[in-house]
Amino acid sequence: MPSLHIIYASTSGNTQHVVDTLIEHLAQSHKEMEVTAQRAEEAQPEDLTKSDVLVLASGTWNYDGVEGYLNMHMRELLEKRAKDTDLAGCPIAFISLGDDRYYYTGRATERFMQFAMEHNGKSCCMPLIIINDPYGQEEKVTTWCDKLMECFTSSE
Which of 22, 43, 58, 80 could form a disulfide with 47 if both were Cys (CB 3.0 to 4.6 A apart)? Predict the structure, then answer.
């Protein structure tokens, strides 16, 4: 049975909504898939490599007056707890949220890609980038989800 593990960081509920939409769509369209989701603050380094495909999801946040970072929980996971993790070619996909009021609107994508490159991950599809309120953008999520399924055929 193919497996997908989602690690996400959500403090305002927006990333949680996108992940819930993704999981609901997978439950309807890919019943054979084993899908698990985990909050970034609960994740350990070994969770990054425990499935056939990994999805990382986070909003773009500001820290210390500087914008363009991952959510603090995702940043803590990737930059501290998992800083020495080897993804060993694991297929990985990214979900990034952002707000067009800021200059670095969706820079979480760049941060994710940098992590994947530095830790031997293999990006398997275009990132899903949600700008502004994700409510009302569910069709964008489900369309991306269908493209995400190609990661399983290309990794076999």
Answer: 43
